[in-house]
Amino acid sequence: MEKLILIDGNNIIYRAFFAMPPLTNASGQQTNAVYGFTTMLLRLIEEHKPSHMMVAFDAGKETFRHADYQDYKGGRQKTPPELSGQFPLLKELLKGLGVSQFEISGYEADDIIGTITRQADEAGRQVMVVSGDKDMLQLASGNTTIAVVRKGVTEIEYFGPEQIKERYDLTPEQIIDLKGLMGDASDNIPGIPGVGEKTALKLLHQFGTVEQVISRTDELKGKMKEKIEEHADSAVLSKKLATIYREVPLELSLDDMKFDGLNQETAGPALAKLEFKSLIERLDLSTHAGADAAEGAAKQAQVNVTVVHAGELAEVKEALDSVQVLHVETHGDNPHHAEVIGLALATEQRQFYIPFEVLKSEEAEPLRAWLADSEIPKRGYDLHRLDLALHWQGIAFAGAAFDVHLAAYLLDPTESNQSLSGLAGKYGLSYLQADEEVFGKGAKYKVPDEAVLSENLARKCLAVSELVPIQEKELEANGMLPLFHELEMPLSRILADMEKQGIAVNVEDLKELGREFESQIEKLVQQIYEIAGTEFNLNSPKQLGEILFVKLQLPVIKKTKTGFSTDAEVLEKLAPYHDIVRLILQYRTIAKLQSTYVEGLLKEISDRTGKVHTYYRQTIAATGRLSSQYPNLQNIPIRLEEGRKLRKVFVPSEPGWSILAADYSQIELRVLAHISDDERLKEAFIHDMDIHTKTAMDVFGVSEDQVDANMRRSAKAVNFGIVYGISDYGLSQNLNITRKEAAAFIDQYFEVFQGVRRYMDEIVKQAKQEGYVKTLLERRRYLPEINASNFNLRSFAERTAMNTPIQGTAADIIKLAMVQMDKALQEKKLKSRMLLQVHDELVFEVPEDELEVMKKLVPEVMSHALKLSVPLKSDVSYGSNWYEAK
DNA sequence: CATAGGAGG
DNA sequence: CCTAGCCTCCTATGA
């Protein structure tokens, strides 16, 4: 027997929100309304065992009702942001549970439900409507039961035509008349003033309909008669507003609402994501996709780990063919210098722990060959780090097939706890302790005894093997499998290769630079002390503030929360007042170069190779960019000549080779042109115009030769602002103009680039609806604060919504170029090596006889990495060091 | 361990 | 009227 349940999504989540205490998950996202909704939903499923189910939502601000009555729902409080942020969560959860949902622009949920019940009536199908709104009673019929939810969401009262007759002595149709007379304060439906439920019922029992009441007022007397005559129009309008529209153009078939029980594969993970652990337990769901609950539970309980000592490797070697997962325990932040503790391997049935001394021993050679075999697929957590740590111990690693760390990053790049135990916990795998608990933290770090250690590593392996299928499902559901398998996984191996290779540094030149900086610093410091009339610590903003603003009485431009601000922006403004300020600015510049780039870089030169080996981090930046550590080679100075000189110390590692660098020209604005589909912007790039000049021409409405330096500078600032999610304040700061002027500027820009304006509006709207934004390659970033009531939080999220698809797509593109470049170098058997990536730039070292090829190949690959509606442009140059390659 | 400041895209 | 640019990493102070 078919049984369809229709749920008024907006009404129920609203009720749940006010009924439930404010529950939040670990990331601070409020989830109480989703929780309340879910408990009610699960109860309905249990009690009624529906064969079909659908949750209907309101969509679109203006419904057709506003055409009749502008104030419709006018008095209603705006949806609290703490609630609106939960809509995307609920919609995502419903997907995971396998419950269909529907909304159609311009109609409310009850119209959708009204239309479906009409169709069901016509077909003679059983339907149950769930809502807290008594209006729904008008839909009751022999086939349609109305479940009215009360007391928050804890009680349900069922109404068919008989129950309505019993309670009100009315037919379902008369419910509309009832509301027409009494109105509804919450929807701002007026009704007749002074007529409440009691009077309305009395009138309807006597006359039957609103129309009859109005036309037969002569049968009434006194105040009542006057009021009804006076507000007759209002009653008719109110009746119309209260009538559920049952002719919505729906293209829904019954099959679209099929419900085959909770989706056993995705329900657990979806609930786990919201941290509804009690519900998972209650439903006996496994968070392990595809596994049955009993199996999942059994797996949690048992690890079966064998510690492999010297001379005991036979068993491991035999089991190698069936090993699925590995884990290498390391210690230390910098993987190039990490200590390797040991290796854990896991088959489906058991785990092995091989201490590092054993792994190094001669008899473990087959094990190392297994590790190095790229044809053997391996799963694990942070395989990139493991690869580097093993490499410096002389052990090769290849065959990374699934890295749960990378997968977790794609599924939520802003997740703060990316540790394996954090990840496991997120999916309800509670058997894995945090590393801090097992090893201690900071100076207290200590490898526990073998029994504890091997148990922990075995559990890590188990967690990985449980996470892989869950994440695979989620990646698939998000359309991210290609991004994962074809971009991020291959890239992680390429990054490891680049890092192992490292870039050579000319130590003598670097030290010489350091001596030059040192003497400049000494001079500056002496002059500053002299002018100040006292010695103090120039590196202390606190002491410096004291000198500038107390002793020298310079005007205070800006304050920080701890005192006077002395940053460069402030000092620039103070420069005209006092000679000391220029000197301080110079000191700051040189001191920065000395401490961070000369001394910092010297510390990072490897005594094994004489090179610097940065560590690219693939799972940090929320937009999908890489970041670089130990040292950071993505912020080597270039803008000021003094600092740019540092690039001279980055040299080829082999005599006669060159450094070759290629960078994308205006990649972010080109990406913007593509995704916004702005005709003017696209045209500028199709004709390869100077984009800032072109912007100035269009915004100021002048010809090319009328654009002066100042206009171009302003246009450039606006272009940057656009990419970052512009605010008039930000632009005004940047250009040193008033906020009004900046606002006018931005307006003018959007007037000219209307496609860009449309994109900015659309992307924010989309983010508010879906809860996330994505790049061209489907990389996601969730924006839980997009509906916050706090202005700052919300504005921040809105700018992020505008910026992330741009910056993120640019990141996607250069990553694609790296994968393609790596392939091209291999296929063409070139000796040239890719060494560095700096967001929009790739740096190579190239032998003399490959220069000509590489000069063509690199820009060729970069500009065709991804086909956009505008050309991608890449400029290439080379020289005897990074400075010369400009 | 937090804050200020500054280097890059 | 006010809030107040996007994404990072590193060094120095000073509590």
UniProtKB/TrEMBL annotation:
Domain 3'-5' exonuclease: 304-476
CDD domains assigned: DNA_pol_A_pol_I_C (cd08637), DNA_polA_I_Bacillus_like_exo (cd06140), H3TH_53EXO (cd09898), PIN_53EXO (cd09859)
Key words of the record: DNA damage, DNA repair, DNA replication, DNA-binding, DNA-directed DNA polymerase, Exonuclease, Hydrolase, Nuclease, Nucleotidyltransferase, Transferase
EC number of this enzyme: 2.7.7.7
Any Pfam family hit: DNA_pol_A
Swiss-Prot/TrEMBL catalytic activity: DNA(n) + a 2'-deoxyribonucleoside 5'-triphosphate = DNA(n+1) + diphosphate
The name this protein goes by in its record: DNA polymerase I
